[in-house]
Design brief:
The complex is a heterodimer of chains A (389) and B (289).
Chain A: H1 9-26, H2 29-35, H3 40-53, H4 58-82, H5 86-126, H6 132-149, H7 152-162, H8 167-175, H9 180-188, H10 196-209, H11 212-224, H12 232-262, H13 271-282, H14 284-317, H15 326-329, H16 331-349, H17 355-381, H18 384-387
Helix pairs in contact in A: 2-11, 2-12, 3-10, 3-12, 4-9, 4-10, 4-11, 4-12, 4-17, 5-6, 5-11, 5-14, 5-16, 5-17, 6-14, 6-16, 8-12, 8-14, 10-17, 11-14, 13-14, 14-16
Chain B: H1 9-12, E1 16-18, E2 24-34, E3 42-49, E4 52-58, E5 62-66, E6 69-72, H2 76-79, E7 94-96, H3 97-101, E8 105-108, E9 113-116, E10 119-124, E11 130-136, H4 139-145, H5 149-154, E12 159-161, E13 165-167, H6 170-178, H7 187-196, H8 199-208, H9 211-220, H10 223-232, H11 235-244, H12 247-255, H13 260-268, H14 283-286
Parallel strand pairs in B: 1-6
Antiparallel strand pairs in B: 1-2, 2-3, 2-7, 3-4, 5-6, 8-9, 8-13, 10-11, 11-12
Helix pairs in contact in B: 7-8, 7-9, 8-9, 9-11, 10-13, 11-12
The chains are: A mainly alpha (389), B alpha+beta (289).
């Protein structure tokens, strides 16, 4: 038996550097999938949680972050081992009726969620006095041109850079001067008022953090990165990083609202309400930070959601579609993207449409779809023909 | 008698099965074939309830097949001789058509695209055999199986010949490698196949195919895919390819180096795209054995 020679200091540094580079190479899906969950519906839910219940229900965020890590890790693993996305895998193992039902629900939920993202764009820009009839079309067209016409690695970098706006929420949290002791207690000691409203907001928080589209997104993306089983340990770090950041951002949104709106007994209906209400309490800077966060989150999610939907549809139908192909080469893929983005834009711009109702309905649909998708994931993960023994 | 059998596999599944003494023993759960690049005949029938298989019986034992179902030439007691586990033990090249082919992803090597099998097209032959002719990758069969029969029937099937397919399901992929199906692909076909398989499955193909053809296929592949695969191969496997590659390709293979930065760049840009071969390889590569 040959003994392995001890590594020199430079060798250890070199190995660490190599590991870091390999880690950076796979970072992306987990961060994007996680951070895209901090979208306007998510920020709205967290804002309502903090405004109505203060620090009391912070533990729910910890719980949903753990669930996010568990299921996104599972999704990435299933993608790497099977080489298929979630919807395709459901059709593969359970036939077209189950697969079609999951696809139809996902399509409906994603369409509704894209509407909610664009509603976030509208609300965010209106805080700065920009009309939704200008902001929403410009953002939608801009995102379509970027995603469908650009080189995707640049878009991925752009999206990740865009995610940096979430720092705005952390900054807003510090500006609000919260009670850190109460926050720590709320995070670590589970307690809840036994009311229907509290149960609804807890369900909504778990539902908005662990969104169905995020599950399908991370699996598809791990497939396309052609990751191998050996890459999974790095992918896991990516997933954990994205999930923890998602939880931390949600935590700061709750803390900001708890420290300002809850202590004064105020009530809000949306994240934009929260930003408006913050101005007199924490200053216009906090309001602007909150508004910038909403806009950034909305643009990030409205770019990723139609892409994830188009990809799932292609996979279900059995159409080959990719970003390199151009409209002529993959009309179904590009058409699906444009239809989801265009229909969502049209819905958001309908005069008199109750956007809050659309947002709430979407969250309900997401919650309805989440449970069967988790059951499918559990069953698929236990299938030895797919995952090996 | 068997000429009136349904044309599609999905219409065969679920049909009632009777013993020779008219006892209903279950339904058709699946059908097996012995994999062949040509058109294989149905080898055995899996009979059971729901998705669970209870019996595996040779196709030759089917006496009649009509609207009422399939009747076997063995009685209820004799059925026990063909009892099977629900996860049946299959012969080396044996595939279950519903489990390993239906609804799975396939690579159409002629059309050069990734598709999903909506149905398997069977042809009844005069010699009492049922042969797998092709798979339907069209939306018509998919819609019909989802319950939209009228809409589905309006769409024409998109048939892909069985011999022009690479099946990607776990069992079928392995069977095709052992059945040496990839040995019959030329460099161009191999390169198209590599572009659509996961890294692990693509490596299986590179390792199984003759070294010279694998090297030519890698040469014909998109540079980023080539780098990805070469990075995961062991140095010994890369050396095997270099030694077998014609001189023109050897330079390219030697150019490869396992720089983490190169791999990082490759992985960064892989999302939602298929790294297809940029140009067809020179004509002489395809004929190399």
């Amino acid at each position: 038996m040959t003994a392995t020679p001890p590594l020199t200091a430079s060798g250890r540094v070199g190995r660490r550097r190599t590991r870091l580079i390999v880690l950076l190479s796979v970072v992306g899906p987990g961060l994007l999938a996680g951070l895209s969950d901090d979208d306007p519906p998510g920020i709205t839910t967290y804002s309502v949680l903090g405004t109505e219940y203060g620090y009391e229900l912070l533990w729910v965020l910890l719980l949903s972050t753990v669930a996010l890590i568990a299921f996104h890790s599972l999704g990435a693993r299933m993608g790497v081992v099977t080489g298929q996305g979630l919807i395709g895998l459901i059709r593969d193992r359970y036939g077209p009726r189950w697969g079609g039902s999951a696809m139809a629900l996902l399509l409906l939920a994603n369409l509704g969620t894209t509407c909610a993202e664009l509603a976030g764009v509208a609300a965010g820009f209106e805080l700065f006095g920009v009309s939704r009839y200008l902001a929403v079309p410009v953002v939608t067209i801009g995102v379509c041109v970027l995603v469908l016409g650009g080189r995707f690695h640049r878009i991925e970098h752009f999206l990740l850079a865009l995610a940096a706006v979430f720092v705005a929420y952390i900054a807003a949290g510090f500006v609000a001067h919260p009670d850190w002791g109460q926050a720590a207690k709320g995070l670590l000691v589970p307690r809840m008022p036994l009311t229907a409203d509290a149960i609804v907001i807890i369900t909504a928080t778990v539902g908005t953090t662990l969104a169905p589209w995020g599950l399908s997104f991370i699996q598809s993306y791990a497939v396309d990165k052609k990751l191998t089983v050996d890459d999974l340990r790095y992918e896991r770090i990516d997933v954990i990083t994205g999930s923890v950041l998602t939880g931390v951002i949600g935590l700061f949104v709750v803390i900001t609202c708890a420290a300002t709106l809850h202590v004064r007994g105020l009530h809000i209906d949306s994240a934009a309400d929260a930003a408006e209400a913050l101005a007199p309490l924490a200053g216009s800077f906090a309001r602007s930070l909150f508004a910038i966060g909403i806009i950034g989150a909305a643009i990030l999610a409205s770019a990723v959601l139609p892409l994830s939907t188009a990809y799932s549809l292609c996979e279900f139908i059995g159409q080959e579609g990719a970003l390199d192909d151009g409209f002529r080469g993959a009309p179904f893929f590009y058409g699906s993207y444009l239809i989801v983005a265009g229909v969502s834009m049209g819905i958001v711009l309908l005069p008199g449409l109750p956007l809050v109702a659309v947002l709430v309905l979407t969250q309900v649909l997401n919650a309805v779809l989440l449970l069967p998708l988790l059951v499918f994931m559990y069953l698929l993960a236990r299938d030895p023909h797919l995952m090996g023994r | 008698m068997r000429a009136d059998l349904p044309k599609f596999l999905s219409r065969q599944l679920g049909r009632p099965v009777f013993s020779s003494d008219s006892v209903r023993v279950g339904r058709v759960v699946d059908m097996t074939v012995l994999y062949d690049v040509g058109h294989p005949a149905v080898h055995r029938l899996a009979v059971g309830h729901g998705r669970r298989i209870h019996y595996l019986l040779p196709w030759q034992l089917v006496r009649t097949a009509d609207d009422q179902g399939l009747r076997f030439a063995v009685d209820r007691v004799e059925f026990t001789a063909y009892a099977s586990r629900s996860d049946p033990e299959l012969e080396d090249r044996e595939l279950l058509l519903a489990r390993d082919v239906l609804d799975t992803q396939v690579v159409d090597l002629v059309g050069r695209r990734l598709s999903r099998v909506s149905d398997v097209i069977l042809v009844a032959l005069p010699n009492n055999k049922l042969e797998v002719a092709a798979v339907d990758v069209g939306a018509g069969s998919l819609l019909r199986r989802m319950g939209f029969r009228r809409l589905g029937d309006r769409l024409t099937p998109k048939a892909v010949d069985w011999g022009d397919l690479h099946l990607t399901s776990a069992r079928a992929h392995t069977v095709q490698l052992t059945a040496a199906a990839v040995h019959r692909l030329d460099a161009s076909g191999l390169a198209e196949l590599l572009a659509r398989l996961s890294t692990d499955k693509a490596l299986d193909v590179v390792r199984t195919a003759p070294a010279a053809r694998s090297a030519a296929a890698l040469h014909a592949s998109h540079p980023e895919l080539r780098h990805r695969l070469l990075h995961v191969l062991t140095p010994q496997e890369v050396r095997r390819l270099v030694e077998a590659a014609p001189p023109a390709f050897t330079r390219l293979l030697h150019e490869f180096h396992t720089s983490p930065a190169a791999v990082r760049r490759q992985l960064r840009t892989s999302g939602w795209r298929i790294r297809r071969p940029p140009t067809p390889p020179p004509a002489d590569l395809g004929s190399q054995r």
